[in-house]
Specification:
Elements (H helix, E strand, L loop, with lengths): L10 H8 L48 E7 L4 H14 L6 E7 L4 H10 L5 E5 L28 H4 L6 E5 L3 E3 L4 H4 L8 E3 L1 E2 L10 H4 L15 E2 L3 E5 H6 L2 H14 L8 H8 L4 E2 L28 E3 L6 H6 L7 H4 L8 H6 L1
Parallel strand pairs: 1-2, 1-4, 2-3, 6-10
Antiparallel strand pairs: 4-9, 5-11, 6-9, 7-8
Helix pairs in contact: 8-9
């Protein structure tokens, strides 16, 4: 049986896979900050130009109608970023209202050029994340990729983004959206600073070690809360509340504590949990079908969880583009492949 027949994905989304390369004429200004050239340490892939997408008749054109999305821009994950952006544009009811904010660790004109040439109509800005912000604050984790400074950039969004950006949707690069991202953007956050899917069935204790739970004072950190695991790769942030509440400082304090006494193993996630677990706005699980990259050690194949799906997330060691290139893909990787804009040697020969 075909994989998509086993999933709760609407038929129109499946059909959109087949018509990925149909272009629609539109024009929207490119807003990219001027940066200084610093060559990439690796040769960037070459990508096909994405189709242009235009708003439907019901879309507004005011500044308040913009949907602000933050993502990191990294040489090793650029292929994933391209696929993620394409998936959002393709499934959005108002694609011209998507405003992308890309954070990169180096002033690299090649990365910027790659985004511009692949998405010539994209509404986007580029920001340089100063790695010195986290120098001396990062503790070694179980996987090297989790220790990169850019992995911690999400903590500083409120400091980096312009003051007129009141809300931001932060997304990892190893995902695709198969629904209108505007539905996630419009979540009613009530009085919460963060909104994300929570997973209260997960064993929360595994995210911290025995040194944490055996310490009488530390173990009272979650007193008065019902902490649940949430994945920081998909979250809506009230930027104003984050700034006013001093949440960057709160997260940094736990990072500093970790340097003195090791209480967790997983990169930037645990300090977020320590500060916010049990005090966020719950979002439907359909908005983060995570863990498709397997665990953090072997990245073995995993199956989809039952239920409707709006976002597929390859968190974990295994990335779909790497498994597809190795010709050892997992079944779920074929759901990512239609959004891959990588111009392989095969495509060059065909052209």
């Amino acid at each position: 049986m075909a994989l998509w027949r086993t999933l709760s994905i609407p038929p129109d989304l499946i059909l959109s896979f087949l018509f990925l390369h149909i272009a629609v004429t539109t024009a929207v200004a490119i807003r990219v900050r001027t940066i200084i050239h610093n060559p990439s340490p690796v040769t960037l892939p070459v990508f096909r130009e994405a189709p242009a997408f235009r708003n439907g008749d019901s879309c507004g054109w005011n500044k308040s109608d913009l949907i602000h999305i933050a993502m990191t821009l990294d040489e090793n994950y650029i292929r994933g970023t391209m696929a993620a952006v394409l998936s959002m544009l393709q499934h959005s009811n108002c694609p011209e209202n998507l405003s992308f904010h890309f954070l990169c660790a180096h002033s690299d004109v090649e990365l910027v050029s790659s985004i511009q040439s692949t998405f010539p109509y994209l509404n986007s800005k580029i920001y340089r994340f100063n790695s010195n912000r986290v120098r001396g604050k990062i503790s070694k984790s179980i996987r090297q990729a989790l220790d990169q400074p850019l992995n911690y950039a999400r903590i500083y969004l409120a400091d980096i983004l312009p003051a007129d950006v009141k809300r931001i949707l932060y997304l990892d690069s190893d995902l695709v959206v198969v629904d209108d991202v505007g539905k996630l953007w419009e979540v009613d956050m009530k009085d919460k600073v963060l909104a994300a899917p929570e997973y209260c069935h997960a064993n929360f204790t595994v995210y911290f070690n025995d040194a944490f739970w055996s310490d009488p004072e530390l173990s009272r950190t979650f007193q008065g809360r019902k902490p649940c695991y949430f994945n920081t790769g998909v979250m809506v942030m009230d930027v104003d509340k984050w700034r006013k509440g001093g949440y960057t400082k709160k997260v940094e304090q736990w990072m500093a504590f970790q340097k003195k006494k090791r209480i967790y193993q997983l990169g930037s996630l645990p300090p977020f949990l320590l500060v916010l677990a049990g005090n966020i706005k719950q979002v439907d699980h359909r908005w983060n079908q995570h863990g498709l990259g397997g665990d953090n050690f072997e990245g073995k194949c995993r199956h989809l969880h039952p239920g409707p799906i709006s976002l597929l997330h390859w968190s974990g060691k295994g990335k779909p583009w790497l498994r597809l290139d190795s010709r050892k893909p997992c079944e779920v990787d074929h759901l990512w492949a239609p959004y891959d804009l990588y111009r392989s040697s095969r495509h060059l020969l065909e052209e």
